[in-house]
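The aim of this short unit is practical: by the end, you should be able to scan a pair of folded records and say something sensible about each. We start with the first protein, listed as its amino acid sequence and then its structure tokens.
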Amino acid sequence: MGRTAVFPERPAFTSGTFSAYSQQIEARQKGTDVTKAKQVSVWVSSSPGQIARVARALARARVDITAFASYGSGDEIPVRLLVDSPTRARKVLRDLDLRVTEEDVLRLTLPDKPGILAELAERLAGAHININYSYATVAKGAKKSDLVLAVSDIMGAVKVLKGL
């Protein structure tokens, strides 16, 4: 299966509405917004229609998918999701008899400019923080990009990415 990453526009949020599933860690600093988010991963068979099944079930439950990535090989693959309601998403997906896991990740909104990924990765490497995986995209002509990072030390990453 090929790699896919999609990032629809992220809605504006207040601490009251967004804190239900994510915690704002750093306010915008030099154009970078770093947010700790709860990622829901659902494990599906590697066959046509599985992502459609997951997406349709979440849509029926009015769960908004704000980012996703699906990749892998073999019989079962993870579909990694950032959603507006991880609790509701978890229930919907478990009701489909699918294996569901969760983990904390970082979601960064970065300026779209050459070298930003190099700077971010160098800062994390300098603090001995591993990037386990990531996914990102930039809309053509956009001035900012969204990046989702699963790292070995989230709070350490937040500290070293301050002011990026």
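Turning to the second protein, read its sequence before its tokens, just as you did above.
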Amino acid sequence: MTSLIDSTRVMPCLRTRDLQQTLSEMTRIAAQAALLDHNAVWTAVTARGESSSFVFGRGVMVPHAIVAGLREPVGVFARLAPGLELDAADGMRVDLALLILSGEGDEATLLRALACAARRLRDHDVAERLRSADSAHAIHVVLTSDVWRESPTMHRAEESQSSTNVSEWPTITAPS
């Protein structure tokens, strides 16, 4: 997960009205990070979504796709507020979303990334920490390492000592 996602692609509070708007915002960020056309990324993800479900249950979805021109895998994480009703088998609203993109001819990397994401996000402790984390940095730490398991809370003082200077993301409301 460390090579897939960095803290600049973590949205701690994404407010959208539906799946399409959520995917649009997440693919926009991924396209910017990969220097690709947003419409090409959007089309790849939505086409993949027509043939398979992105919803894993337990409030988690992992949209994914193979994207032409992508040189290395890219991930974008969003905590959705409020969660989306996406007809999950368990009936839970989706509030945690991890977009995973991989380049053409690199299907094996996409499958490995999906397996890693599924293992990580189905861990009850990880999911709870993702839901309660107070910053993009804290979410990134929970997604990419187990250092948070060593102490009951991540303090802001610890975050400020991090070598990564990440500003807090404001609440993002996607345009209507």
